Every structure is written in C-alpha cells, then in structure tokens.
Fold this sequence. Notes:
This protein has helices spanning 2-19, 22-25, 28-48, 50-58, 64-74, 78-84, 89-110, 124-133, 137-160, 170-265, 268-298, 311-328, 348-364, 399-402, 414-420, 426-436, 465-474, 478-499; strands at residues 307-308, 332-337, 345-346, 370-378, 384-392, 440-446, 450-459. The radius of gyration is 42 Å and the shape is rod-shaped. By secondary structure, it is an alpha+beta fold. Strand 4 (370-378) and strand 5 (384-392) form a beta hairpin. The chain starts with a helix and ends with a helix.
Amino acid sequence: MKHKLMQLIAALDRLVNYFIPPEIMADREARNRAHVFLISHILGPFIGSVVPGTIFFLDPNPGYEVAILATSIMSFWLFPFLLKARVPYNPLALVSVQNLIFCILWSCYFYGGVTSPTLAWVLTIPLLAFFYLGSSASLRIIVIGMFAVNLTIFAGFLYGYHPIKSDLPVEAMQGLGLISTIAAAAYVAMMALYYAKVQTSQGELESEMRQHMATASALRLATIEAERAAGAKAEFLAKMSHELRTPLNAVIGYSQILLEDAQDEGDAEAVSDLGKIHGAGQHLLKLVNEILDLSKIEAGRMELDLQQTVLADLLNQLILEAEPAAAKNGNTICCRIDPNIGSPLCDAAKIRNMVGQLIDNAVKFTQDGKVELVAERLPGEPVDELAVHVIDTGIGIAQEQIANLFEKFTVVDDSSTSKYGGTGLGLALSQKLCRLMGGDVLVESTVGEGSRFTVRIPLIYRENASAFVKAHEQADIHAAATLAPDFEPALQSMTVANHA
C-alpha cells in the first residue's frame, strides 16, 4: 500500500513538473511556489466541485447560478495549461485568486448571504495568496485590495438589491454547510500538507548543499595541503639531486681517469672493476636526473628550450650511441629518416631524452633481434607532426599491461626487473615530456613478437610559423595552448625570417 502511495505521489510530481516552464524550474523559490499553485489547480477542482454538486442534489429547482459556480470551479483546470504556455506566473496567480473570490462570494450571495454555509471558504483566500505569491509584500497588498473591492461589490448587491432567495429548506442548508466545511477543511489540509512536503524537501536540499559546501571546503584545504606537500617534495628532490650529483660527478670523473690509466697500463682486472664503477655511477646519475625531471614536470616547473634543430643529425647520433648496447645483446640497430624532416623549432634535449629512453628500452628487452628507428614528417593543420617509431623484435608486452606501462616504477613484469634491470621511470618520463610538448606516446605490442612505440609531437617549421602564430591567437590546437608561452620569442624570430 505504501509503495503504491509513493508511486502515486511520484506520478503526481511528474505531472506537476510537466507544466512548469524551464525558466521557473531553474529558480528554486519560484519552482516551489509553482508546485503549490499547480497542485491547488489540479486537485482543487475535485474538492471544490463537491459544493455545486451538493447544491444541485439538494436544490429542487437548480438554476443558472449552480451552472456558473460549477463552470468557475472547473475553469481552474485551465491555469496549468496557461502556465505551460508561458503566461507570466504572478498575473496568472492573481487571476486565480480573483476567480476563487468570485466563486466564494457568488455561492454566498445566492445561498444565505452573510450566513451562507459556503462562507468558510473565505479562509482559503489569504492562505492561497501566501502559498502562491510568497513573501512579496506588493502582491499581498494587491490581493487584499482585490478582496476589498469584491467584498464591496458583494455588499452593494446584497444590501442594495433584494438577494435571490434560495428555496432550500433548513435541513438542506445545514447539510450544505456541513459538506462545504468538510470540503474546505480537506482543501486547506491538502495544501498545508503539500506545502510542508515542499518545505521539508527544501530543508533536505539545503542540508545536502551545506554538506557539499563543507566537503568542498575540506577538498580546498586538502588541495592546499597537497600543493604544499608537492612543493616541499619538489624542493627536497631538487636539493637532494644537487647533493647527489656533486659526489656522483666526482665518482664518474675520477673513475673515468682511473679507467683510462688502467687501459693504458694494460691492467685488465682493474679495467673491469673500474668499468663497473663508472657504469654504475652513470646509471645512478641518469636515475637522479629522471627523478628530478619527473618532479619538475609534476610541479609545473619544467620549461622548454626551443631552438631550430637538425632532427636527422640528432636521431642519427642517438642510434650511434645505442650501437654498443645493441651489439652486446646481439642486436642489429638501424634507422630510416624522412629526408623532409628538416630543422623545426623544438627542444632538442627533451626529444633526445624522450626518444633515447625508448631506444634504450628496445635494446634492453631485445636479444639477438633487430631495433629500428623510423622518423617521418606527417602533414597537419595548421602545423605538421613529427612521428618517431621505435620498433623492436623483443619480448613484447601483454595487452593488459599496456594500460599501466607509463606509470612510474612500472616494468613489464616482476621477472624483467631482475633479468633486464630498470626502475620503470623511463617510459613515464618519456610520456610526460611528450605531452609537455603537445604530443603523446602510442604503443603497439605482441608478446613474443616485439613492440612499436610511436612518438607524435607537433613541430613548427619556418614555412608554417605564421600559420602557427595565427592558430595560437585563435586557440585552435592543443599544441598552441600547451606551448605558446615558450614559443613566443622563437616564433617571432622565425616569422621575421620567414618574411625576410
């Protein structure tokens, strides 16, 4: 039973909401008043029609006065449709109150005058004025004025002319009074209960809003604390990296000197030991640099150093540097570079770092196979893209592991850490550097067959520098929004050179 009642209430709410225009629905207070207004006009005529129905049943000779009263009460059903048609709410509410005053005074005039059994309905007038019009003092004054004018007209007809006498017997008048009072009480109770429901819903909404505001305040405080902690972390890492770099540079430098001396003396055992020391020092320095770069990017302190760069020379140099490690693993390494790749405006150091990480990974996870670097210039609008593919025939990566591949301290699997080495920072840093330059890193891999890592970043060439400036001004592309602050000085010089 309770479930059916809840369904009925929900259906009634949907019906009410159907008649509320969007502009009223957007205002909470106006929406609450409209809800009460519509409930009164949807359900009110059912209760109010009891009065003319009783008169028609009790009056042996019902006349036009009953028909007019019934028509006025039924006309309340027009008001929801008028509201749906975007008739202004306040004038519509005032017309509704006027119609109610007319119905009440009309029934009083024809059935008993000031002693009419329908006089109790007068009490609903200030109640509905409060429900419909809210706290507007001017509208309440208008309602009081309307009632005073109607009452004056009623008194003029009642005492200036002979009122039309109803021939209802006393018992019938008493019955009409009882039914009319019950109907008026039911109507007032219905409106009061619905208004209480609206107020309760509003209170719950306000309570929920207060909770959301408290949560938002707590989140702001947590954000401030997180930013403070991130700043402290970045500062700590910067200081620690400096403190670590100083002795590491000494270790690497002196081990290099000792290694060269041992090689000159032909001391094979010392060469082997010093080579391990030197390699470990370089590996540790690389790790420190990676951690520092990641912390700078996460703290938003990483800047781009943009210069015109001969990309073919840069990529060929990376291949030459990777050849010893590739040969050690029995791999062949080669590159194919698009001759149109040219000399765009870019941060050469970060491209070197990013692509170098991918080549190192490919060499490390490939045994007796092949590693290939393919670089091409892809046409774009308004700027072209650089696509660098690092392809290997190594162990490959399972599809379920690719999603987490660029997380910090993530490696292919647990066994690869001990077998191949690595901390899982290289790919994370490569992706962050690539996104810093407005691009991204894509991965395709099959277990046991190999992997393809593709770097795609927008690049600015002399011939499209002007187009990029225009795109930047119009905020048309992601690269412009990302790189514009760093591109400004170099772009200006390139644009000037382009027009020269």
